[in-house]
């Protein structure tokens, strides 16, 4: 059992990224269980910031039209994706609306977390952290790595992805060398989770542990 440590240092803002199938979710679940932290998934935040009544919602409807709305008046994810697929050049415009809104939301939550002495670590996870400019916002950027064959196996077994979908998704993401160059810490999640957990514990040994 690890002893509690005095960590009255500044809250640490950490971004976690990596390719599809790298296993980020399992590692974040472990961190959430054992460390005094808050964890936000950028995809979930993106859903929150485009709900009806928000400025992000207004801008997206203005850009894409009311066809993206469901019966409840909220933005329908599938309908919005269809509009973007029909006109791929709009993706950049959509991202220019959503990404700043997500960052604003997260930075507000970060300021709130800094006022809470029980929070020592603040994590944000997204596949596009580097592309969205989070390198300049976080204290550290972590890269969850896994070999391509391992990622393909996970995506086939856990998500039922076809080889074609895996190929397309991987092509759309940054190559490994860019992740490694941009990130401050690499977790090799190619093996068993116990090994990955040891890597995390070593990295976070200065922070409080919860059984």
Write structural notes for this entry:
- The chain has 211 residues and is of the alpha/beta class.
- It folds into 2 domains: 11-36 and 121-205, P-loop containing nucleotide triphosphate hydrolases (Rossmann fold); 43-119, Rossmann fold.
- It is 48% helix and 12% strand.
- It has helices at 24-34, 42-49, 55-64, 77-86, 90-114, 148-158, 163-171, 176-182, 193-203, and strands at 12-17, 37-41, 121-125, 140-145, 185-188.
- The chain has a 5-stranded parallel beta sheet with strand order 2-3-1-4-5, sandwiched between helices.
- Helix 1 crosses helix 9 (193-203), helix 2 crosses helix 5 and helix 3 runs antiparallel to helix 5.
- The chain is globular.
- Mean pLDDT is 93; it is low at 1-8.
Topology:
Elements: E1 12-17, H1 24-34, E2 37-41, H2 42-49, H3 55-64, H4 77-86, H5 90-114, E3 121-125, E4 140-145, H6 148-158, H7 163-171, H8 176-182, E5 185-188, H9 193-203
Parallel strand pairs: 1-3, 1-4, 2-3, 4-5
Helix pairs in contact: 1-9, 2-5, 3-5
Brief characterization of the structure:
The protein has helices at residues 24-34, 42-49, 55-64, 77-86, 90-114, 148-158, 163-171, 176-182, 193-203; strands at residues 12-17, 37-41, 121-125, 140-145, 185-188.
Primary descriptors:
2 domains; 5 strands; Rossmann fold; 12% strand; five-stranded parallel sheet; single chain; alpha/beta; 9 helices
